[in-house]
Design a protein that fits this description.
CATH class: Alpha Beta
Order of helices and strands: EEEH
Radius of gyration: 18 Å
Largest sheet: 3 strands, antiparallel
Mean pLDDT: 85
Helix content: 10-25%
CATH topology: Ubiquitin-like (UB roll)
Shape: elongated
Strand order of the largest sheet: 1-2-3
Strand content: 25-35%
Bound molecules: zinc ion
Length: 89
Protein backbone atom coordinates (compact mmCIF):
# COMPACT_ATOMS: atom_id res chain seq x y z
CA UNK A 1 0.00 0.00 0.00
CA UNK A 2 1.13 3.54 -0.63
CA UNK A 3 0.50 6.80 1.16
CA UNK A 4 -2.50 8.80 -0.03
CA UNK A 5 -0.55 12.04 0.36
CA UNK A 6 2.99 11.36 -0.85
CA UNK A 7 2.91 7.82 -2.30
CA UNK A 8 5.48 6.70 0.28
CA UNK A 9 5.45 3.15 1.68
CA UNK A 10 2.90 2.40 4.39
CA UNK A 11 4.08 0.22 7.24
CA UNK A 12 2.12 -1.40 10.03
CA UNK A 13 2.59 0.19 13.43
CA UNK A 14 0.69 1.76 16.30
CA UNK A 15 -0.29 5.37 16.90
CA UNK A 16 -2.18 7.13 19.68
CA UNK A 17 -5.79 7.98 18.91
CA UNK A 18 -7.19 11.20 20.30
CA UNK A 19 -10.67 12.66 20.03
CA UNK A 20 -12.15 15.72 21.72
CA UNK A 21 -15.92 15.98 21.95
CA UNK A 22 -18.21 18.30 23.84
CA UNK A 23 -17.52 17.62 27.51
CA UNK A 24 -15.03 14.78 27.22
CA UNK A 25 -11.91 13.51 25.50
CA UNK A 26 -10.73 10.05 24.62
CA UNK A 27 -7.13 8.97 24.27
CA UNK A 28 -6.29 5.43 23.23
CA UNK A 29 -2.56 4.96 23.61
CA UNK A 30 -1.83 2.39 20.93
CA UNK A 31 -4.07 1.78 17.94
CA UNK A 32 -2.81 -0.32 15.03
CA UNK A 33 -2.46 1.77 11.87
CA UNK A 34 -0.64 2.02 8.58
CA UNK A 35 2.04 4.65 8.89
CA UNK A 36 3.82 6.36 6.00
CA UNK A 37 7.56 5.87 6.23
CA UNK A 38 8.06 9.08 4.26
CA UNK A 39 5.71 11.77 5.61
CA UNK A 40 4.45 10.18 8.84
CA UNK A 41 0.76 10.36 7.89
CA UNK A 42 -1.25 7.38 9.06
CA UNK A 43 -4.42 5.54 8.20
CA UNK A 44 -6.46 3.38 10.52
CA UNK A 45 -7.75 0.01 9.39
CA UNK A 46 -11.48 -0.49 8.97
CA UNK A 47 -11.69 -2.81 11.99
CA UNK A 48 -10.25 -0.24 14.41
CA UNK A 49 -12.30 2.58 12.90
CA UNK A 50 -15.49 0.55 13.48
CA UNK A 51 -14.48 -0.30 17.06
CA UNK A 52 -13.60 3.30 17.89
CA UNK A 53 -16.94 4.47 16.47
CA UNK A 54 -18.69 1.90 18.67
CA UNK A 55 -16.78 3.11 21.74
CA UNK A 56 -17.68 6.74 20.97
CA UNK A 57 -21.37 6.07 20.44
CA UNK A 58 -21.60 4.03 23.67
CA UNK A 59 -19.73 6.70 25.57
CA UNK A 60 -21.88 9.40 24.00
CA UNK A 61 -25.01 7.78 25.47
CA UNK A 62 -23.55 7.24 28.95
CA UNK A 63 -21.75 10.54 29.18
CA UNK A 64 -25.02 12.38 28.55
CA UNK A 65 -26.23 10.94 31.88
CA UNK A 66 -23.38 12.44 33.91
CA UNK A 67 -22.50 15.71 32.21
CA UNK A 68 -24.75 18.60 33.23
CA UNK A 69 -26.65 20.04 30.26
CA UNK A 70 -25.22 23.48 30.76
CA UNK A 71 -21.47 23.03 31.10
CA UNK A 72 -20.92 26.76 31.61
CA UNK A 73 -22.65 26.63 34.97
CA UNK A 74 -20.94 23.47 36.16
CA UNK A 75 -17.87 23.39 38.35
CA UNK A 76 -15.06 22.09 36.21
CA UNK A 77 -12.12 20.49 37.96
CA UNK A 78 -8.87 21.53 36.30
CA UNK A 79 -6.75 19.01 38.15
CA UNK A 80 -5.92 16.42 35.53
CA UNK A 81 -4.88 13.73 38.01
CA UNK A 82 -7.07 10.65 38.25
CA UNK A 83 -9.81 10.75 40.87
CA UNK A 84 -10.27 7.35 42.54
CA UNK A 85 -13.86 6.22 42.08
CA UNK A 86 -14.50 5.88 45.85
CA UNK A 87 -13.87 9.62 46.25
CA UNK A 88 -16.82 10.29 44.01
CA UNK A 89 -19.33 9.03 46.58
ZN1 LIG B 1 3.24 9.87 3.01
Amino acid sequence: MECYYCKGDLQEGVVPYFVKRKGYQIVIDRVPAYICSQCGEYMFREKEVDLIQEIISLLEQKIAMIIPENLNHAYICNDSSDIPIHHAL
